[in-house]
Amino acid sequence: MSDLTLVIPAYNEEKRIKSSLQSLDKVFGNKVDILVVSNGSSDRTIEILNEWKKSHKNLKYLDFPEKLGKGGAILEGLKIAKNKYIGYIDADDAFNLVYIKNIISELKNYDAVIASKWKDKNFFTVNEPFLRKLLSRGWNTLVRFLLGLKYKDTQAGAKFFRSSALANIDMDFICKNFAFDVELLWKLKEKGYSIQESYVPTIHREGSTFKTIYAVYMFNSLIKLWWYKCKKIYF
Question: Which of 7, 203, 199, 3 lies closest to 103, judged by CA?
């Protein structure tokens, strides 16, 4: 899909960003534009990107010295991406990219397509550590109850959109951390856009930048978003 921009948020990803770019290059070649948003990185991430860019003209990057949060970094990338289709994917090279390529093609029929580790799967078949799965299912229950989003997996870091849909939602976000995904999906749903959830196999990679304490910040953001929703409905 030559009219696709892939945004990759990156925070201190010197150990994984090159392998992620290599995997993307193997499956997509130079047919997609890649935009890496360095989110307060203090390691060699930018150095590696500069080296890769010398032989891969489809790569661009943004370098923000301050930490924006994962959602904040993605948002900066979405704001400047110009292609007909725009998506984002995590920097950890955890997704089966052949599946990713297939679900991106579904944008011919939907306004958004989101990857899911959980669709048609159960607690014991998803390839993640026990605690992370437990937090994931608790979070999913809260999102369903508070926002009415019925997807099995709102947090998988691979989501793709028609740019016309993104252009029609408010880009002033309450959630700029790992809760960004739910606000984006909620805004698309509120506008009546069609969202397809598709299973994509993943491999759990060590070195995740997600820490358990972030769940507290995510919960706080979710409550703020729920209250904003209530005010729109009742006040």
Answer: 199
Q: How far apart are CA 189 and CA 211, in angstroms?
A: 29
> Domain containing 121: what range?
4-234
Q: How many distinct helices (H) and strands (E) make up the chain?
A: 8, 7
Give the CB-side neighbour count of residue 60, counting CA atoms within 13 A: 11
Burial (Cβ within 10 Å: 0-12, 13-18, ≥19) of residue 234:
exposed
As a whole number of angstroms, the distance between CA 15 and CA 44 comes to 9
What's the per-residue H, E or C state across 97-135? HHHHHHHHHHHHCCCEEEEECCCCCCCCCCCCCHHHHHH
CA dist 108 and 106 (Å) reads 5
Taking residue 171's Cβ as centre, other Cβ atoms within 10 Å add up to 11
Q: What are phi and psi of 197, to 5 degrees?
A: -100, 125
pLDDT per residue of the chain (235 residues) written in tens, 0 to 9:
669 999 999 999 999 999 999 999 999 999 999 999 999 999 999 999 999 999 999 999 999 999 999 999 999 999 999 899 999 999 999 999 999 999 999 999 999 999 999 999 999 999 888 988 999 999 999 999 999 999 999 999 999 999 999 999 999 999 999 999 999 999 999 999 999 999 999 987 765 556 677 788 899 999 999 999 998 876 6
The number of distinct structural domains making up the chain is 1
Tokens for 162, please give them.
């028609």
CATH number of 11's domain: 3.90.550.10
Please report the beta strands in the chain, taking only residues with DSSP state E, as ranges in sequence order.
4-10, 33-39, 59-64, 85-89, 112-116, 158-162, 195-199
